Write the structure tokens for this entry.
Amino acid sequence: MDRSQILEKLNDIFRDVLDNDTITMAEETTANDVEEWDSLNHIQLVVAIEKEFKLRFTSKEIQGWAKIGDLVSSIASKSVK
Amino acid sequence: MKTFAELKKNLKVLPSNLKSIRVAILGDTATQLLTIAIKGTAIESGYTFDVFEADFGQIENQIYDSTSNLFEFKPEVIIIFHSTHRFLLKYNKLLPTEHSTIAEKQLNLIKDLVEAIDKRLQSTILYFNYPEIDDAVYGNYSNKVKSSFLFQTRKLNYELMEFSQSRHNLFLVDVASLQNLRGRLTAFQPSLYVNAEMIFALDILPDVAARAVDIIVSLRGNVKKCLILDLDNTLWGGVIGDDGMENIQIGGLGIGKAFSELQYWIRKLKDRGIILAVCSKNSEEIAKEPFEKHPDMVLRLNDIAVFVANWEDKVSNIKHIQSILNIGFDSMVFLDDNPFERNFVRANISDIAVPELPEDPSEYLEYLYSQNLFETTSVSEADAERTKQYQVEAHRSKAQKAFSNEDDFLRDLEMVSVVERFNKFTTPRVAQLSQRSNQFNLRTVRYSEADIESLVRKEDYDTLSFTLADRFGDNGLVCAVVMRKQPESNTLFVESWFMSCRVLKRGMERFVLNTIIQLAKDSGYMGIVGEYIPSAKNGMVKDHYSKLGFCQKEQYWHLNLSQYEIKPVYIKTVEGKQ
């Protein structure tokens, strides 16, 4: 799965969890750009992404994403295996 | 069960017609998502929870400070969640010599908290027990080491059960048992705990919330009272009409063990007061044969209150069973292996619970365990007699047909009633009756055992309970009245009047009123004031007071003692022992 496919899937998950169909994300998007993306919803997002991609993030990863691109990288590095 | 995301969506648009309950949630770890799950689950059960959620780690501060937000909020229910993780942290910080007393210390803390709440509020308290963490310091040997964390956790869980015996307003939310069921790997996600202070994984939150909400709605009368059973491939393996009694699978034959164990479970339910009914497409004689003659059957005919076996459709038959038992469809569970029958019943009787039994009978029992269908918040000794009472009722209605005149029938019953004020012997049953009575209940006030105990101590209240027995059998305690003295108008206000629907049409209402009048006269009152508060289910008593001769003034009903003539009844009073 390449980065754009991952991003597309992520976009669907964000829209679903945050219940907002207008969300459009790019690699540079940060939590500040998306109104509903607060720390509580973040937990739900992490769990939903883990389920969708069938992987588990480390605590370091969960705390380390500055932008969506970092999240895509985390997923890409795990999905290679 | 709905997912967390679905429960959260419930909160987007709140239905407007739901009953509201004020609930406080106090935790020593992050409870925001748990709170969302609890609120979402409440809506599934027909309630909205008006929630006060304390910042986490504020349990003790909120409870020990009489001016706290908690006490200002005046919750009807307080949910307290001390996590095993925080308990472990306390343990870790102690000297090894202190480890063996930590369960006792924690229990004392809990007792103090409950005490402090009880001093200021009359709330129901829900306390989470402790799912085990085995820190594997001793391996299996921790069972033999009193100071091990596992030993102390189990001890604490046991002592909590003991403590809750004496506290009628304290209920344990058994998350320990939930973790046993779903497994620690599902219940707990370490990364969420470390990053977000969340003890429960998202996937288990709906189950945790359900455990808590089950208790709260059960206290308000939403309980299951009756289990309706299909027979072929539900209570035994095979089809009795085709295979014959000797070939059905039960006991040692084939997968009979699965059905035998299911029957033992059902019999335990019956012994604790769940009414059993049979609803089967069979000819009656053939369907009854195993109950009478099969050596391996656990359930016998005298365990079944209503036995319906014919070729009518199941919806009609369930409606027939309902008309005999006189309880709501929402208090019934229907067990059937056939998906067609299940869907047919679901589609036509919206409130009945129809568990989606697994295809393989060997999985029935584990599946049913996981559903927590029969939550209850009280048990009384009379529960075990319930099935018998419904069977007796069937005899009684047969007898009635022999009389053309209702008075003759009532006279023939030779009814007697024990009348007494509430006391410690009748408290559990009175509380239970207040929680279970939905139809004949004038104001639908629900009382816990603790509420009843405090009522009895109050000077400005008077109470009466009534049993009813006749020549067919004893119905036990079937009616209760709570009266508040109103010295300013020299009247008694009937705060509650509720009665079991089993004893309708016996003249019990007139008998109870006669008794109230006598009590009022003896105490020098001039009148009785009643009120009818409509609920979704109590339409039956809408005209209760007008039928008894009360006059309406705005929302209240008045009866002047000087104008009252004792009504004719066929029930004799027996004074209580107290």
In short: The CA atoms of residues 5 and 40 of chain A lie 26 Å apart. Chain A touches chain B at residues 16-17, 19, 39-40, 43-44, 46-48, 56-59, 62-63 (CB under 8 Å).
